[in-house]
Amino acid sequence: MLTLGEVHTGLLQNSTALSLDHTTQLLDLLVGQRVRRSERPIAYAVSPDQLTGVDCRLPTASGRVTRGVGTVVSHAAVTGGHVVQGSTYTRLDRAASNRRLIWSHYLSRPGRVETIGKVDFSDVAQGFLSPAPQPQTLNLGAVSARLMDVVQSSPRLDRRPPFRTKRTRLRWAIRPAPDATAEPRGTFRVESDTLRTLELTAPHDDVSALVELCEDLALHDWLLTTLLSLMEFSLTGPGTRAQKIDRLRPAIDCLLHLWMPAARLDESVLPVWRDLEHRPGFTRQWQTSVTRIRDQVTLSTIALLEAPAR
After folding, report:
1. Peptide bond into 271 cis (omega under 30)
2. Which one of 15, 120, 218, 249 is most buried, counting C-beta atoms within 10 A?
3. Could you report the per-residue pLDDT of 72-117, keeping only the tens digit for each?
4. Phi and psi torsions of 124, nearest 5°
5. Do residues 273 and 261 touch, judged by C-beta distance below 8 A?
6. So what's the pLDDT on residue 27?
């Protein structure tokens, strides 16, 4: 058994943060389905799950041809009225029959893709996580990107974001741990400016908790990446200290209050966050960056106070 997913994260195309009520309206993408929302510890809303049917080859590191048929689950989420995510995932199972069945069979098993023929799940996981694209194979990122585009093109948004930034992608694979009592463990890699990969081993079967873990990691990786990019642009560019601080204002207004890693996660997956904090040190780098921004603001304020009156 293998679970695969990809999360895309970006800045909502609106000049100000959306209220939770407006966010709920934005994510009301399916008639008759409820948008899930919460206000604490931070405003958060997620659209109803959507199913997409797939019948395609699965990516493999070895190049072996393996077919998968079934459905993938996707939804969009908005955090703090500023950050939007498109998330898609599915679970791979070996089919009981070595032939394709009618669609009603696959629709009765939402979020599952059955493999037809021989399959090596380790081979599929490595192929899926490979940074090199494999055409004509299962592409969960395309589903996530399409869902994000639907949200971003909504007439409810004014399309005047406070700053420009790139989307990031987190591609993840979860394999069962050999020991049912083992804690979840993950290996996180930065593959490029916009692509990250996460390989997890987890003993329990709570897919929703693991999906939320990956989405939370994608959110905070985007926050850190975007903050570092804004700092590089603002502090290393030309201009006075006051001008540099002015360029940092969007980060101060839109990003700093959103850092709350693992705030909504199930306790069963918290060991993964602790493991990631121990090695890459997401929060340490975030806090160091925030401290640098505040030091720059303080120095700018002191300079203004010490400037002679004219």
Report:
1. no
2. 218
3. 999 999 999 999 999 999 999 998 888 899 999 999 999 999 999 8
4. -65, -40
5. yes
6. 97
Residue with token string 């903050």: 227
| Mean pLDDT within 198-220 | 89
Amino acid identity at 194: T
**Distance separating alpha carbons of residues 245 and 135, to the nearest angstrom:** 45
DSSP of the chain? -EEEEEEEEEE-SSSSPPPHHHHHHHT--STT-PPEEE-SSS-EEEPPPEEEEEEEEPP-SS----EEEEEEEEEEEEETTTEEEEEEEEEEEE-SSSS---HHHHHTSTTEEEEES---HHHHHHHHH-SS--TTB--HHHHHHHHHHHHHT-TTS-S--SS----EEEEEEEEE-SSTTPPPEEEEEE-SSSEEEEEEEESS--HHHHHHHHHHHHHHHHHHHHHHHHHHHHHSSSS-HHHHHHHHHHHHHHTGGG--TTTT--GGGHHHHHHHHHTT-HHHHHHHHHHHHHHHHHHHHHHHHHSPP-
The whole-model pTM stands at 0.93
